[in-house]
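Please check our next protein.
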Amino acid sequence: MSPLKQGFSEEGHCCTLGTVVMVELQPDSYPVVQEFLRDFQSERSRSIWRVGRSGFKNEVESKYISSETLADQLPLERVENLLAALFEGWTRPTPDARVVRDYYLRSFAILLCIGAGRFIHHFTDQYHLQDRYLPHDNKPSLFPTSSNRDLFADFRAAQPPFCPYRLEFNIGYTLREHDILPINSQERVDEGGSAIIWKVVVDGEYDSLVQREDNTANAVLERNHTYIVKTYRAAEAHKYYEIERDAFKMLRWHGGPPADVIEYYGSFVRGSTFNIILEYADLGTLDQYLKNHPPPQIPAERILFWRHFTRVLCGLAHIHGQSEDHEYLQMFRGWHQDIDPSNILVVSRGGSSDYKCAFKIADLGLSHFKKYTSSPENNIDVDTFGTSTYGSPETQRGWHLQRCKLKVKQGVDIWSLGCVLSEVATWINHDWSRVEEYRRRRRNDMQENTGFASAGDCFHDGFDLLSSVKQTHEELVENCRRNDDITPMIVSEMIQKMLHIGRDRPEAMHLFHKSNEIINKAERLLASREEEQTASTIVGAQINNISRQPTPRVPNPPSHRPVRQKRKSRQPPEMSVADGLGHKFSMSGSRRQFPNQHLFESLNGRDHAFLIDTSESMMPYRERVREVLDLLAYMLLESDPDGLDVYYTNDREKLKGKTHHSILRAFDKHPFQGTPDMRERFADILARYQEKLGKKNGFLTRLVHKDTPPKGPRRLNLYVLTDAVWQPRTDLTIGIETLVSHLLKHGLTNKQIGIQFIRFGNDGEGIDRLNRLDAGMELRLDIVDHTPADGNVWKMLHGAINDWFDDDDTEGKEQEVVSEHEHTNGRGGYGEVMNGAPRSSKQPHPLGV
């Protein structure tokens, strides 16, 4: 028989003539087929069906079944029974049930629903008809044809319930009316002139919007796959949609989203609606947050709030093209043009504090970007008629200039954010009712100045700050809350400069580093007050105890311990992390043009390695760890001939950081969790270095790396970033002592290796641990130093290898003058300091002074 005229017996089911396939109706009367049709065609009210969205406005609730549920409902045995019913009397091999279930199950279900189940034998012969290629928008070239129906049209019409769209990150979709999105619920939360804002919940099985390495990933998953869909629907919907979508994409120019701008996940177009999918801010707008939460009452809470809120400056810096990472600086420059409290959204971060949350810039609908050039005009672009209340004087238009296109600098955004900060500072110092009063006072000022009741509540009259604004700022500085070391400084050193009437306003990244400097200083003051309070409490208790003790009958022998006076010597240079980041950001061209440039000479040619404690207890300091790593890695990259080594306590792998950007990107992806074994990771690093001592280095190695000595490894600086909240009984002394023994064995000095502990937080036990490692070990070579993360950056770099910086002046160890009274009562606290004696003879003072 000709292969083009292949048929079956009289009761056969199929006949092929050329490329035309004639198929009888499937045997719907068979019980197994009837059961299938009840479950998957007529009765879609069962729990196996989920509700998604279709329709040109996403307004239609449509049932769909997930791939996993379909597989659960159609096990292998049921597929075998269906195939047996369909191909009863078939004289050729029937389709393999396992192949159908593994590769064609959705297609098989669709064919059964349209009464064409027997066509599955054709599908299983074609690789490109597998389920992985569903849904079929256009007819595949090898799709079977029927003589009595438009088989593909029927198949395409029936496929949506079996083929909901998987929402993928950063993918745009163009959807037909009946295509189903796996949006299980949606709720309208806001509506403006050009867009509607929906809160939606996406089916977790079809949610691939979040990249797992993004900082927002865990938060999204914890909020049950909740997102925002912004639907543009006005006459110029397509224009506004493209502006905002492209703006969000522009901000991802180096592979990841800025953490302080609301996250963009994807988009879709359906009919005349244009939609973007955004991060859901569960705490609402800034106004809603300030209204629903009382201001922080204690210093620690104020520090926490300001630490998180001032991150919006970093988000604005990203929009302005002022990246923290110089490698990606100035690719594009942007203008937001609509910063106000409604466009700063608040996302919870978990935990018990109301002030541990992320504040993020949103609504880029009026933003605009331009590629960076060296032209003087690069800093200027056309004003896009943004916020009025929070708008700068240079964007104000009289009635005769309403249609004029004004040229503006990025400083218009600085002004707007300065206005927002002014209201936030008012809330901090009072409460939400005072913010409302502040707005009323500005409206009254404007009405008096203009004579119009509808003049608004902006912050200026076109020429100067309103008197109500000036009075508010004076009151915030002079009458701040007790022990508020931040708000007055924010007002005097930041807001007043941001609200400069001229166009010369500070840049966003400069302001961000300034805020860090203010907050870090406040943290130090708070820690100092707490230590003084603790010390005074202990002293009072001990005095009371002494007063109750009987006077000794025999006087104590006189003490011959010398009084130790404060040494007068030239103090080493100092630089804070905030100052260092400010210098880093202001640089162009050569990388290391820092003050005291000569201090890099002793760092050049050394290996530099970081061990970062990624335990759960370090999570609150993650942003500050990043700042320290950011600055030190930036400063050291040119000093290390073959790149910086970066270790993590919860990862066995080592990163060789050749660029500043690669180090930060790897850090951003690393989780902080559990309580890793610091001792094991630390000892492993020292052991690897120790193995290299005394080994000869080949000519080629020394040729490639000119600083490599004939024998042994290059000199090493190891920076350990930790809070020292480790597993119980963690002891690092053995590894350090063993290394010192090997250094002495090979005739090496303490210049060979330096171990610098950089401490985050103020855990008392952790401080004691690091103090003991720094000055409590009897070592013949002093190779360890300890300094707080908000301390002197030059000490972080030199403290373990240069005695000038290693003054051992850390908590609980230094007392400038020891009095005779302390000697006679046995409270001297330190061993004797003699020429040639190791500093390890010092012991912590019992009062922690």
